[in-house]
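Q: Trace token order:
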Amino acid sequence: MKRQYRITPEGPQQPTEAEIARYRDPQRLIYNYTRAVRRPRKPLYRDPKAFLLLLFIVLIAYLISEERQKQAAPASTPTQQGTSDR
């Protein structure tokens, strides 16, 4: 979709009465705007790529948290000092 621009020394052309009348309806203008802006959204359970991506992100976050807990566990456990019971 290539747009063609016309640049003239006289300046831009004024819109005709038919073009002005076409955009005078505010409800139609709002409808066109919301239709252009709003993307069709699929629910997550119907979009397998998005679901797998989200599942992958959750899995990576879980693995990172488990690894950090393993690294923090030996440093936070107190060492046994003193005599044993036997």
Notes: The longest helix spans residues 48-76. The radius of gyration is 32 Å. DSSP finds three helices and no strands in the chain. The mean pLDDT is 80.
